[in-house]
Design brief:
2 copies of one chain form a homodimer. Chain A is an alpha+beta fold and 582 residues long. Helix content of chain A is 25%, strand content 28%. Chain A folds into 3 domains: 47-74 and 110-237 and 416-469, BirA Bifunctional Protein, domain 2, CATH 3.30.930; 254-396, Alpha-Beta Complex (YbaK protein); 488-581, Rossmann fold (3-Layer(aba) Sandwich). In chain A, the strands form 7 sheets. In chain A, strands 4, 8, 9, 10, 11, 12, 13, 22 and 25 form a 9-stranded mixed β-sheet that branches. In chain A, strands 1-27-26-28-29-30 form a 6-stranded mixed β-sheet, with helices on both faces. Chains A, B: Its EC number is 6.1.1.15.
């Protein structure tokens, strides 16, 4: 296909759009690939659309190759199936809801677990029909509170979602692995760097879950990895639990007056002053943080989290573990006199205590650990309060922040923290959706069994941003060959008719050979502007036809490496083809 | 690509779905191509999706070939641009509206004139940038009151919409013609019969408009055509206006008592009885029909339409000519004493009359025509009331029904009526949208001129239904090669392992040659069921590998013609390829 700059619907801009926060957004907008159309909504211009369709094609080829079958659902979906699984409510403000002219409720699908489950239930009934993997490449909708970073977080986006259906856990494991492998091939072909991290199941419930994150400083997700190969989403990191300490011979707890110790720092200062040899640090204290949980049925409950004083509660980790309950600030101290603000101690807490307030502790709180903590009296703390002897708890909770240097749970060394963007997600859903929507098949013995499912997603429009983000340089976009909107950018410079004739002839020869060529045929644009545009637009190979033509040479340039070479006009097409096809 | 029936996500059904009104819906559902997902919303199963994508590809190729450039807009659109053109209100209940979490208004795009206009305004500013044609292939939304006929009228559907931008009328004419020609190529390639009919501009305003209708008895649109080549949408038919008759010497009007003549038939009976030689028929009477117009600003107005008594008002024609006003029943006779129910006569009507009520007449009412009509008194009619002498009117209106046998307006003979489905629409919008949204460019003289636009649509998902509707037979679907989900259906019958081996080998050989093959490899399904499924699924070429194999022959069948021939196993692939490639 031949694209000519004189007619192509594109305008390159000198200035960054005011609302562009990240390089990919800046460059895609400046190079005329996308244009903002609505809050969190972008229009794909011809070049951008070509990249998106290339990404789509790669995703489709790999899904087909693994045996998944493509279908396509409406985006406008009825309320009932989402009501049956509870997600109509759980999604809260995050989905778009609307009514039709008759007042019936609909939503714009953010993801389609319910619909796929019902479709399979509708058509299939036997273990012989399984395994089955279905997918679609579709426009999805989420009412994001804060659309950001251009194509990275929009309210309308293109996603490949697939769903696997198996009769048993072993089958589900195979389907999961097949998707995981297909995803590695997809991201490899897209030229995207990625880390596969363990992930919490989050809103979905289910058993096993991994995310494909592309490391980037502009990423919204924090993940951890160790030199030994461990990688996880921060929400999924589990704490290395210390061994319990025998209780015998441990010192007795003792209450101390600790006026004016409103913070951990001031408390530690007093403790160190009073007991200089004890080696107290913030990690010696146990702070008890009160939050309020709002359950899906609307009821609220106070929850106290006990954790070492040198760590904060990580809001995302907390949200992930308490889901589907939501976390709210706790303010109603008046209704709970057992909670002495600033001096809350474990001895007043727990389901079995007089207060009845649920008390969960960080996994580092094991029997025999001794703590400085609140004494449930204003101005007093208790020292050497010993876990398992002086206080108990209702369970542990993974809510404390993860820090660089923490040990990896699998013993593979200290963790480092990095930022990334989620590009893909593989998820063993288990039987949650099948149970809610009654998807059963007959097994080999003629018995009805509930199907086990997986759900899997790739951010297709997001991948365009991620590729731009990870490959661009200071001059502009740098597309990998697999997704570039054109294989070659032919630039004709000067005013000499012979130059334009040669450039067009070369372009047409390359098109005839099967390439897509972007030919800059603009007659009155200066060479400088044309070169700048070529760098900004980012085709992988740039051929300049200009002054050298009188000497029988063209310039061939590799956009990514910047390497240039002169090639003879005679046989130029073959040389360009060789460069393109590697 | 190889599709195997044993794993393909498809279930053929013996029975028609209860809600299927038309053959295409019945067969697409029974053959497992589509499945109802919501009111007016369908899921595309793997075979249906393949057909849709083939249609899409053909549309895309022809749009690219005519020089249109593909872009892609969000479907979720902000209210403001639609407010600026008045369509936010005009669409009434026919669009889906929703609010985001902040309460901002959005709609789901039914068509994108506003957004394309704004995009071009955003990027372009000179006559040198034009002409420009942009298109998208996109999911559209309309809140249809009565989704019907399967894929023919849904609330979520795939459409190719394009928009042309020109600096002057001559350019717009060229863009219009280019689209019109591309559409003929598209429908030719899809194998769809079509008639190009003149169409009213309807809700859009604008100057020239044609529809591509596929004739089918299940069509919602009535159109007319003459043997001499005239074709028009019923809304667009203009009446052949008779010559006026000199007023001199015409008889004087005379009022007659006509009790008990509540209908045209009873009135004509009385007239014939009283004046047996006058040759009175229903066409001699002038009936005056009152309706109420509701204007977009909310105000209401009575309107009287005078038309020959042998014709009814055609609701669609009336709606088209009064748009954007809406037609409501008129009931408030009490407020308008000039309107004597059942005996309304022209002498009480007209903007200049005492009543001030607007009076429009059928174009057949020309000066000198004489009429039997109401005398504005209960039980009385006036005879020989002569147009242009005894009464006047405010203008003419094309609201009377069109009947078979009426003359074509271009003199090409009598009209016949037929039913069809709109598959495409080409539309010279003119400057309405450009003016509302201020799209101007500098012309050659440096003067700002308003751009003239066209809008053009092809129903992509509807085309799948139309093809199925026009090609099916009593056994099932019959796909044209251009859109068939597979080129060949290979059926292996019996239990002989050699049969399955040969069938698979042939299938794989055909796939290697570039075909898509659907191979019925199901081991325990009877030949009868397999043959029935092959007829129902409708691949253009069916190859049966069965009993004949021991004699070295296969059967090759053409689904459309039913022709069968035996072909030798040796060289079978070449014979099949020859059949497929014609």
């Amino acid at each position: 296909m031949l694209l000519t700059m004189s007619t192509l619907f594109v305008r390159t801009l000198r200035d960054d759009p005011a609302d562009a926060e990240v390089p990919s957004h800046r460059l895609l907008a400046r190079a005329g690939y996308i244009r903002r159309a609505a809050p969190g909504g972008f229009t794909w211009l011809p070049l951008g659309w070509r990249v998106l369709r290339n990404v789509e094609r790669i995703v489709r080829e790999e899904m087909d190759a693994m045996g998944a079958q493509e279908v396509h659902f409406p985006a406008l979906l009825p309320r009932e199936p989402y009501e049956a699984t509870g997600r109509w409510t759980e999604y809260g403000d995050n989905i778009f809801r609307l009514k039709d002219r008759k007042g019936a409720d609909f939503l714009l699908g953010p993801t389609h677990e319910e619909m796929f489950t019902l479709l399979v239930k509708d058509l299939y009934g036997s273990y012989k029909d399984l395994p089955l993997s279905l997918y679609q490449i579709q426009t999805k909708y989420r009412d994001e509170a804060r659309p950001r970073a251009g194509l990275f977080r929009t309210r309308e986006f293109v996603m490949k979602d697939s769903y696997s259906f198996d009769v048993d856990d072993a089958g589900q494991e195979r389907s999961y692995t097949a998707h995981r492998e297909a995803y590695t091939r997809i991201f490899d072909r897209l030229g995207l760097d990625y880390v596969i991290v363990s992930a919490m199941s989050g809103a979905m419930g289910g058993s096993r879950s991994e995310e494909f994150l592309t490391p980037t400083p502009i990423g919204e997700d924090t993940f951890v990895r160790s030199a030994g190969g461990y990688a996880a989403n921060v929400e999924a990191v589990t704490t290395v639990v210390p061994d319990p300490i025998p209780l015998e011979g441990l010192p007795a707890a003792h209450v101390e007056d600790t006026p004016d110790t409103p913070t951990i720092d001031t408390l530690v200062a007093v403790a160190v002053e009073r007991f200089p040899d004890a080696g107290y640090t913030a990690a010696s204290t146990l702070k008890n943080v009160v939050v309020q949980l709002r359950h899906p049925d609307g009821t609220a409950e106070p929850l106290v989290i006990g954790l070492p004083g040198d760590r904060e509660v990580d809001a995302k980790r907390l949200e992930a573990v308490v889901h589907p309950a939501e976390v709210e600030p706790f303010t109603d101290f008046a209704a709970h006199p057992a909670l002495v603000k600033g001096y809350i101690g474990p001895q007043a807490l727990g389901s079995d205590s007089a207060s009845g307030i649920r008390y969960l502790v960080d996994p580092r709180v094991v029997p025999g650990t001794r703590w400085i903590t609140g004494a449930n009296e204003p101005g007093k703390h208790v020292f050497d309060l010993t876990a398992g002897r002086d206080f108990t708890w209702d369970g542990t909770i993974e809510a404390a922040e993860v820090r660089a240097g923490d040990p990896a749970p699998d013993g593979s060394g200290p963790l480092e923290l990095a930022r990334g963007v989620e590009m893909g997600h593989v998820f063993a859903l288990g039987r949650k959706f099948a149970e809610a929507l009654d998807l059963k098949v007959l097994d080999e013995n003629g018995k009805l069994v509930t199907v086990t499912m997986g759900s899997y997603g790739v951010g297709v429009s997001r991948a365009v941003a991620a590729i731009a983000e990870s490959t661009h340089d200071e001059l502009g976009l740098v597309w990998p060959r697999a997704v570039a909107p054109a294989d070659v950018h032919v630039v004709a410079t000067g005013k000499d008719a012979a130059v334009f004739e040669a450039a067009r002839a070369l372009s047409e020869e390359l098109v005839a050979a099967g390439l897509t060529v972007l030919y800059d045929d603009r007659p009155k644009v200066s060479p400088g502007v044309k070169f700048k545009d070529a760098e900004l637009l980012g085709m992988p190979t740039i051929v300049t036809v200009g002054r050298g033509l009188v000497d029988g040479v063209l310039e061939l340039r590799d956009r990514a490496t910047g390497e240039r070479e002169e090639i003879p006009v005679d046989g130029a097409a073959a040389a360009v083809l060789a460069a393109v096809r590697g």
